[in-house]
């Protein structure tokens, strides 16, 4: 799966109480979206989607993970969520504020 291109979640999708406006960045292990909450506040959503372990095709919401990659995917997801928890506990002007993190 190395070097593959993962499809972004569709604009307008409601997820975790937020509405995706558009994809703003993609990297080796995640995608970042501009989104809005129910009050219209602009937020960024970072999605765990490692290109070497998971594949999402255009028009689909769930990524495909090969069975032999599933354990490594789960370990990475655990670390991704741990990072969210750690960032949520930090309040500093030079560190991004985490308002929420969720599994969807």
What is the β-strand count?
Answer: 6
Biggest sheet, in brief?
Answer: 4 strands, antiparallel
User: Strands across the major sheet, in which order?
Assistant: 1-2-3-4
Helix content: 10-25%
Beta-strand proportion: 25-35%
Could you give the distance between the termini? Answer: 23 Å
Shape: globular
Low-confidence stretches: none
Q: What is the CA-based Rg, rounded?
A: 14 Å
- SSE order: EEEEEEH
* Residue-averaged pLDDT: 92
Structural class: alpha+beta
DSSP helix count? Answer: 1
What does this structure look like?
The chain has 104 residues and is of the alpha+beta class. Helix content is 18%, strand content 29%. The model has no long low-confidence stretch (mean pLDDT 92).
Describe the protein's topology.
Elements: E1 14-15, E2 18-26, E3 30-37, E4 42-48, E5 54-55, E6 64-65, H1 70-88
Antiparallel strand pairs: 1-2, 2-3, 3-4, 5-6
What would the keywords be for this entry?
alpha+beta; two-stranded antiparallel ribbon; 1 helix; globular
